[in-house]
Write a structure and sequence with these properties.
Number of helices: 5
Number of strands: 10
Strand order of the largest sheet: 5-6-9-8-7-10
Strand content: 35-45%
Shape: globular
Helix content: 10-25%
Distance between the termini: 55 Å
Structural class: alpha+beta
Order of helices and strands: EEHEEHHEHEEEEEH
Largest sheet: 6 strands, antiparallel, barrel
Length: 196
């Protein structure tokens, strides 16, 4: 059987709770009927809906979730957006951080994403959606190499939202990635970071 890829996708509601789980099996057209017949017996037994569809190609390339994830992780946001049919974005909950951005004069929203697929570390121009309001800003993905012990730091997502003064701790926001500004950079000191 010519199986191209197998992946599991989960749909979540706004609070992050999983509401549906999908198992996606990508096969060649020649083996699709065999796969469908084999899985149909399993799905009927377990009351699972089964839909089989032929592979979709765009500009000669197979479009699949694994391909799209790879494009995002490689930083090819333009092609990932084309395959998705929408911009690449991340939704997450705003949590309290160490207020380092505020001390530098650029307060940031620290975001815990609801999914793990992120663009490469760096600084991005973003559009920010909070409830029904739209703002613009800059987002940072990285380990804060300018600060001590950055090798042990987890990857964080922070967003400085222009002309924004609301308290949004515990709230969900969406960051839509528009353009990568630069890669992650270690500055010689905090003053240099502030003056960039």
């Amino acid at each position: 059987v010519d199986i191209i890829s197998i992946s599991m996708e989960q749909a979540r509601n706004k609070s992050g709770k999983i509401i549906h789980t999908f198992l996606l099996i990508f096969v060649t057209a020649e083996t699709k009927d065999k796969i469908q017949y084999t899985n149909l017996k399993f799905c009927k037994k377990n009351i699972i809906k089964l839909d089989a569809a032929r592979l979709f190609k765009l500009n000669g390339q197979i479009v699949s979730s694994s391909v799209i994830r790879s494009l995002i992780q490689e930083g090819n946001l333009k092609k990932a957006s084309l395959f998705l049919g929408r911009p690449v974005y991340v939704i997450g909950k705003v949590t309290e951080g160490k207020a380092l951005g505020r001390k530098l004069g650029f307060p940031t929203a620290n975001i815990i994403p609801y999914h793990e697929i992120l663009p490469p570390v760096g600084v991005y121009a973003v559009r920010v959606l909070f409830k029904k309001d739209i703002f613009f800003g800059m987002a940072y993905i990285g380990v804060k190499p300018t600060f001590a012990n950055s090798n042990n730091n987890p990857i964080v997502i922070e967003a400085h939202i222009f002309n924004f003064r609301k308290n949004i701790y515990g709230k969900d926001i969406k960051l839509i990635f528009l353009k990568k500004i630069r890669s992650e950079k270690k500055f010689k000191d905090i003053a240099a970071l502030k003056n960039q």
